Amino acid sequence: MKFMVKEWELIELYKRRNRINFPVYQRGLVWSEEKRRLLVDSIFRGIDIPKLYLQYFKHDDGYEEWDCIDGHQRIQAIVGFFDGEFEYQGDTFEDLGDEHKEIFEHYKLTIAEVTEIDEEEVRLLFQRLQLGVPLNAGERLNSILSNMGKFVTEMT
């Protein structure tokens, strides 16, 4: 298994969208519109988004394609915003001014291109990448209301 870390601008991701496949082990689209909007908000705020893991294939005829190992929801949210499937602050991508379109299009994502990997290793990598434990309600609240969280922690 080999990894090559690259950066793609969102516009590159969008142009390659039809060459990114989503294998059967990937869950369907589960992010709510609100969660998709939050990803777009993170992009506009310049917040780092976790890297995508894509298995890279280059065919004999030079055609390139990728299988998504991790990042399905993020990819679909980004493509969905480009396609006008949902609004961010009342605007679809097409409604944005040129400056905001430019910011979105040129935001850089980190991509881990994976090669020399067999199906068993792909599934193992996918499982390992899914080991993250979501925050519980208290942990989310603490991250949002850090000053209040500090106060509550001090009081307990």
TrEMBL record:
Transmembrane segments: none
Residues spanning the signal sequence: none
InterPro entries according to UniProt: GmrSD_N (IPR004919)
Name assigned to this protein: GmrSD restriction endonucleases N-terminal domain-containing protein
PANTHER family linked to this entry: CHROMOSOME 16, WHOLE GENOME SHOTGUN SEQUENCE, DUF262 DOMAIN-CONTAINING PROTEIN
Domain GmrSD restriction endonucleases N-terminal: 12-112
